[in-house]
Give the backbone structure.
Amino acid sequence: MKRLRLLRWSGSVLSPRTRPDLSQLQPHTFRRCQATAAASSAPLEEPVPEAAGTPFLPEEILQRLPSPPVTAARTSAKLAALHARLSLPSRLPLETLARTLVDASADPSIRFNNKGFAVLGNDLLGYYTSEYLLSQYPRLPLAVVFAAMYAYHGPATLAAIAREWGVEAAAEPGGEVDPGLLQFKRLPSEPRPELPHPQLISTRQEENPNFRRTMSSRTVYDDQFGEIKERTRSAETMQEKGATLQRASTDFVRAVFGAIYLHAGRAAAKQFYNDHITSRQVDMASLFHIKNPTRDLSRLCAREGFQAPVAKILSETGRKSRTPVFVVGIYSGSDLLGEGAGASLDEARTRAAVAAMKGWYLYSPTEFRLPSETEEPGARPWTPILVDPGEIAN
Amino acid sequence: MATSQRASRSLCDTFSRAVAPRYVCRTCRSHIVQPNVKQIRQATYSTGARENRTSLRPKAWIQRGGQPGTAATYATTASRSQKSLAESEPSAATDGYEEAHTWDGYEEAHTWDGLEHVGHQGHWRDLPPRPQDDYEPWLVAPAAPVVDRNEFLGYLYVALVEKLPYKGQNPALQQTTTDRTLDESLPIDVSSLQIKLSDSGTFSHLEDKTGAGQGKSDTTAAEASTSSEGSSRPFEISVAAMEEQLSGARFDFSSPLSFQILKRFSQLSGFRVPDPVLNAVLRGNKTALEFVELLTQSSKPKPKSVAEALIMKQKQAFGVDAQPSSTSAAVEAPNKKNTPPKPLGPNVMVLSRRETPVDKEKEVGRWKVIERELKARGLPVLGHKVLAPQGEAWNETLKERRL
C-alpha cells in the first residue's frame, strides 16, 4: 500500500502563518505568526504597525482582523477550558485549537482557518469508522454501512458532539472575539429551502431523478455517506455566503481530529476517536429497511446452500379474539433462523423473516482486529478477517 | 461576675423574707448559715437606695465621683462591689452625699466664655503659621524612592561608617560618632575601613584594614553613595566588598546604636524602614544582607487593586512579563518552600475592570454589528464611554435639531 508522507503536505498546515493575500482582502496588513512556527518566512513589504509585536492588540486593529490573532489564544479562558475538558494532549497547543474553531467562512485564508485540519480529520474519521464497521459487522449491506457511517460521524452527529463539548458559537467572527468561540459567518436569513431535509439512502435527493444511481456508483463516486459530493464551485459560493451552525460545528470537530493527528500522532488520534466516536451507542438493527424479507431470506438460503426456509407456528393465543398473537419461527431444515410475533400470521412470518435476515447481516465475530492496529509498533501481523461475498441482490 | 452577684442578691432577698423552702441545697445552706459580710451590706445598700431614689435622681450627675449607695441600677451596684470594703462604708456614702449637696462654689455655665480653647474656630487656612507650628522633619521622603538593592546596600554601609565607633589611627575619624559625616572635608578612604563584628555577629566597631592604600585600587565596580546633604564626594567601594563585610553581620536590637544606624540609613536613603521589615529581622535573626533584600522587596510599588496584582501574577506565570523574583521570594518567606509563581489557571481571566454588557457583546463579536446598525439608522451608540465621547458628530447634530 502506498504511504503518504503526511509531513510533507502537512507542512502548509504547520507552516508559519502570515497573510500574503491580505493586500487583496484587507485594506490593512498585520503580521500574525503562528506560535508553533519558528519564524515567519515571507517578509512583508508593507509597514507593520508596532502593536503587531505585542501580545495585546488595540481594539481598532482587532476589529479589522477576520479572526482572532494567534496571541489571543493564550489569554482565552474558554479555550483553555475546552482544551482541558476534552483532555487533549499537551502537545496540541492552544493556538492550534483556536485555529480549529475558525471556519473557512469566517477567515478565507487557509493559513488561518480550519479547512486543512477538517479535510484530514474527515478522512481519518471515515477511515476509522469504516474499518470498525466492516470488521465488527462483516456482512452489513452497503446501504446500512452508509447509514452507520452517517450515524457515527455524520454532520448531525458531529454537530451534536460539538454541542456536548460545550463549544459556543460567536455571533459574528472578528479579531476581537474570544478565540474559544466557534467562528463562522452565518448564512443570511432566508426562507427554508423548498426541498425537504435530505434523507438517507433510499430517499435522498438526486440531481437528476431519472438517472439511476446504484449502490456501487455511490461507493465509487459519492462521499463516505453515499451522498453526492458538493461541487467545488458551489461549495465556494456557499462559503462566501456563509455557513450553518451545523456545518461549522462539523468542520470544527473534524479539524480537532486532524489537529490531534498532526500534533500528537496516530495513537493519540485513535484514542481520541475511541473516546468520542466509538463510545457512542448506535443501534445497528434499527438502520435496516428490508422491503421483501421473505424473498430475500429464500434467496439467501439458496445462495448459501441451506434448505429452503419454512415458517412454522410456534405458539398462538386468542385466535378467535380481537387481539390474537401468533409466534412464528422460520426454519431451515431443523435450524431455527428467526422468530417473530405478530397479530396475524403474515405479520408474524414477516417479522420472523426480518429477524432471520438481521441475524444474518448482524453477525459479529467475537474477536476481531482492526487494520489500523497493525500500524502500531510491535503489532502482530495482519490475519485476514471474514469477508462476506456480498449482500443479497434485490 | 455580674450573674453571680445578681444571683447572690436574689438569694439574700429571698432568704431575708424568711421563706423556708422544702429543700435547700448544700451551697444555699451554707449561705443561710454563714452569710458573708459583703452580701449583707449589699442587701442593706439596696434597701437604702430604694428609699433615697426619689430624692437623688434629679441630681444624679453629682454622684459621678463613685459614691456608694446612691445608684439604684444594677451596673453601679456591680461596679461598687469590686471596690474594697473600706471604701464602701455606709458612713462615707452619707458624708459624700452631704458634701456634694451642700457645695456652693459651683456655678453653672451658660456660655463657653472662659473655657479653655482647644483647636481652631474654622478658617484654619487663613490663619498665619505660628512659630510653634514650624518643625524640621527628621526624614524628608524623596519624590522618587529608592528601589535598587545596591543603593540600599551603599546607604547602609555609609550609615554604618558614620555611626559605628572607630578604633584606628586616622585622626579624621576620631570624632564622636554623632558628629561624623562623610563629606568632602573628611580625608578618609572608605575602602580602607573594615567593619568589625562582635563575637555574637553584631556590629561592633570600625577598624583600618591592614593593607590600607591598596584597597582603592582594587575596587572594580564603582558604587556611588552620597550623604543626605548631597555635598559629599563619592566614596568608591565595590558592591562585592560591601557584601563581604556585611555578610553574617546582624543588628543588635538591645543596643541604641542599631537604631541610630537605622535612622541614619533612613535619612540617607529617604526610605522609612517599615515596622514589619524590622520585625522580620528581629524575630528571624536575619543578617544585614537579608535586611537589605527585605527592604528592596518592600520598597517596590504595590499594585493598587486586586486585579492589577492578579494580572501581574498571570503574566509572570505565563512568561509574558518575566521578573526575577526568586531571591526576594526566598528571603521573604524562608519557611515556605521556594515555589515558582503559580498561575491562577489558564481558564481564569482577570479583567482590569467590571465587565459590562458591551464587553460581553464584544466578546461574541456582536457589538460591531450593533454599532454598525445603529450608525446606519442614525442612532447614538451608547453604553460605552469610549464609544460615545462627548461632542461626537451625532451629538452635535442632535443639538442642532433641538435648536
